[in-house]
Design brief:
This protein is α+β, with helices and mostly antiparallel strands. The chain has eleven helices and seven strands. The longest helix is centred in the last third of the chain and has 81 residues.
């Protein structure tokens, strides 16, 4: 076996940025740590220091260290032991990185965005996974609940022939697990979109908010899947250069096919959501127009009723006015003692009422 590279501490320094969220008192960073030889687990050290020691003792061995939100000191100890690049350590500390693949000498640094669908709230939860792959080690740094790497480790341990191919085999198994984890998310989102279409045509007023929230999730999902296509093609392009085993080549091509299919589905979801949002806006506009038309018709009918009431009030006001004037008790009123005064008053009332009626009728007030 070739001598392992010098693992003196690099000048790793933490870049400025947000301080990490405080960890709970019972938080355990090292989820699982093991040393393998020829695809079989030969040691399960409890600490990182024990892992380093056992790996040095196992010539031709491989260390697989699984971490969840490790501390800065733990990452720096890994950097010192495995000669990890300071920039990759900074990324692993800060998290919130885009999916990417970078090579630092003989170490490969991969950032993945895992996703899982939560049935109860009907939303997509995203996690972040950083993977360091070297000649005789694989380190996973997980930020978030997804993915479940314990299942990946068990599957690889059940196929020692594949695990014996080295850290690259474990990396491809992790890539496959992350990509396979997208399938339930795609199914859940498809169900959500079917429900949204029903709600849109049913006129549910809350559907706009749901469309917006799902669109935001699809943007995040697209950011997780689209870079993977280029990353996997980049790995496939290095098959010949790095002498990748043929079995791993087939493995990676299958993963690339799956992630391409998923990326296309996500692109289709975004386009469909845009179209649904447009249809919903059209339906809402039509509903608002119908409501405005109904209000206008109600206002018109109310205005017509007011016209009729006002017309009849004016017609009845005319004889009331004449009668009121002639009903006043003054001795010196004109025509008070006129013999034709009463018939004249009645005739005046009738003429005024008929005149007003004719005028209002011509104006369609009555």
């Amino acid at each position: 076996m070739p001598e392992r590279p010098d693992r003196r501490p690099p000048p790793a320094k933490r870049a400025g940025g947000r301080p990490p969220a405080p960890l709970p008192p019972d938080h355990r960073s090292v989820i699982d740590s093991a040393v393998y030889r020829d695809g079989s687990r030969v040691a399960s050290p409890a600490t990182l220091a024990d892992t380093f020691r056992r790996l040095r003792e196992q010539r031709g061995g491989m260390a697989w260290i699984g971490l969840h939100r490790p501390t800065e000191a733990e990452l720096h100890s890994l950097a010192a032991e495995f000669n990890l690049h300071p920039l990759s350590i900074e990324d692993a500390l800060e998290a919130h990185q885009r999916p990417k693949l970078e090579r630092y000498g003989d170490t490969l640094f991969v950032v993945l965005r895992a996703a899982r669908y939560l049935d109860a709230p009907e939303e997509v939860e995203f996690g972040e996974l950083h993977v360091f792959v070297g000649p005789d080690f694989l380190i996973t740094v997980r930020h978030g609940a997804a993915p479940d790497l314990s299942a990946v480790r068990r599957r690889m341990e059940e196929t020692p022939d594949l695990l014996s191919l080295g850290p690259e085999a474990a990396l491809y198994a992790i890539l496959d697990a992350v990509v396979d984890g997208y399938a339930p998310v795609v199914s859940g989102v498809q169900n959500d979109m079917d429900e949204i279409e029903t709600e849109v045509f049913r006129g549910d007023p809350e559907v706009s908010r749901r469309i917006y929230e799902l669109s935001r999730e699809m943007v995040e999902f697209q950011r997780a899947t689209r870079p993977l296509v280029g990353m996997l093609h980049g790995l496939m392009a290095g098959f010949a250069k790095y002498g990748t085993d043929e079995e791993l080549q087939r493995y990676l091509r299958d993963v690339a096919d799956h992630v391409t299919h998923t990326s296309e589905r996500v692109d289709g979801f975004r386009q469909a959501l845009t179209e649904i949002l447009t249809v919903n806006a059209t339906l809402v506009s039509q509903q608002q127009n119908a409501e405005m038309r109904a209000l206008a018709e109600a206002g018109f009918e109310q205005n017509e009723e007011i016209k009729k009431i006002s017309s009849w009030a004016a017609i009845l006001f005319a004889p009331t006015l004449v009668g009121t004037i002639y009903g006043m008790n003054f001795e010196t009123m004109p025509e008070l003692k006129w013999a034709a005064g009463y018939p004249f008053a009645i005739l005046l009332m009738a003429v005024v009422c008929v005149s007003l009626y004719v005028i209002f009728k011509k104006r369609d007030w009555l």
